[in-house]
Amino acid sequence: MRNPTILVSDDEPMLVNALKREARRFGIDVIIDTSSNVVELARAQQPDLIVLDIHQTLDGRDLLAALKRDPTTRGVPVVMLSANEDQFIRHCCFDLGAADYEVKPFDPAFIRKVARMVRPSAEDGSALH
Asked: How far apart, in whole angstroms, are the C-alpha atoms of residue 95 and residue 65?
């Protein structure tokens, strides 16, 4: 059985690497995108979940809309990340099909939430190793 895979698209390498390190504790493989190539990577890699930053080279809302229009990626849950707590942007993301919306900096519980989304039995990383 393969590990669940998430695709993290964010232009902050430190954040992406921190997410990758934490996800490994839960037995989750991570594909990293720091160049707004999330749509192409999602088509090719077929991740179980996408974590997508709103503010990067391309607007994350446009990338979310493209992911939800594409028949290959339409069913993949997308968790939006933003440093902005603006309710209009949050609602816009949900209207476009986001599964969740997290504000940065996120707390350690965020990776547990992501783990439960791709591996519902994952309550903590210790049970997987």
From this structure: 10
The answer to the question of residue 110 being in a domain is yes
Q: Give residue-wise pLDDT tens across range 95-119.
A: 999 999 999 877 778 888 888 888 7
State the DSSP string of 95-106. HHT-SEEEESSP
Domain range for residue 85?
5-123
Give the single-character DSSP code of 29.
Answer: E
Q: How far is CA 116 from the centre of its chain?
A: 13
Q: Which residues, including other chains, have CB under 8 Å from residue 106's CB and lie 6 or more apart?
A: 81
pTM above 0.90, yes or no: no
Q: What is the pLDDT of residues 9-36, one digit of tens each?
A: 998 888 888 888 888 888 899 999 988 8
Provide, for the chain, the percentages of residues in helix, strand and coil under a 3-state DSSP scheme, each rounded to the nearest 5: 45, 20, 35
Domain containing residue 33: CATH number: 3.40.50.2300
